[in-house]
Amino acid sequence: MVRAAAQTLGLDETQADQFVRKFGLTETKLEGQVLKALKPVMDQLVAEISKSVTFFQGQYPTVQFEKLILTGGTTAMPELLPYLSTAIGLKVEVANSWIKIGYPANLQEQLMGLSTRFGVAAGLAERDMLS
After folding, report:
1. DSSP string, 75-92
2. Does the pTM of the predicted model rise above 0.85?
3. What is the 3-state secondary structure (H, E, C) of 4-17?
């Protein structure tokens, strides 16, 4: 996404990264230029997600596919969730990496701010605990 923004907007990658993080898929910021730059990449992402949903539904026709759960730093990009939800036709939400991990209540606010960056680590830790 950063590379697409850099090339389309004529920015270096550091500036493009800042624009993507700050403006994301917002139509009303910078006249929607960042959205226009990211649209081809987002179209590819939506196509791949749609293929995966179709494949899943073909393999498990009796299972209802209710929502898409995202993790990773990109989930903080402005307007990503509503964009994907509209494009895919499913509810989209951000994963809570700490859902099965115990921690002191006074750390909840700090940990929730980091949750999207620890999805893989938390999943591996949980898998290791079950082994």
Report:
1. GGSTTHHHHHHHHHTSEE
2. no
3. HHHHHHCCCHHHHH
